[in-house]
Write a structure and sequence with these properties.
By secondary structure, this protein is mostly beta strands. Among the domains are: 33 residues, no CATH class; 46 residues, SH3 type barrels (Roll). It contains no helices and ten strands. The protein is 0% helix and 38% strand.
């Protein structure tokens, strides 16, 4: 694979793989604007850019016309809409807020009488 940063093209030399004999050894050239990340529904992903950066979840639906994935988040039961270019596959799970005002998650506390 080679990338031309001036013309924004990507060249691929195809390997000799089973079932791909017609393409073996050929060089294919694509405009970088024509390439899109390939993520399947059901994949666990992490948002790496944009307003929702850091969120993790499972892809539940893809809109290939607009290159958008719908992701069911790990921390809150909600569905978010994210561009494919802002995602990467990941086994990582986002961490929520575990401490607030000097108290940690699962600390036993007593409520003041008012």
């Amino acid at each position: 694979m080679s990338v031309d940063n001036i013309q924004f093209t990507v060249k691929l030399r195809m390997l000799d793989l089973p079932g791909q004999q017609l393409l073996a050894g050929k060089e294919l050239e694509y405009s970088a604007a024509d390439l899109v990340k390939h993520i399947l529904a059901g994949a666990h992903v992490r948002v790496v850019d944009g307003l929702l950066s850091g969120e993790t979840g499972t892809v539940v639906k893809l809109d290939t016309a607009t290159n958008v994935a719908f992701v069911f988040t790990d921390l809150a039961p909600r569905e978010i809409e994210v561009r494919l270019s802002d995602l990467e596959e990941s086994s990582e799970v986002a961490q929520g807020l575990n401490e607030l005002g000097g108290f940690k998650l699962y600390d036993l506390v007593r409520m003041k009488d008012t």
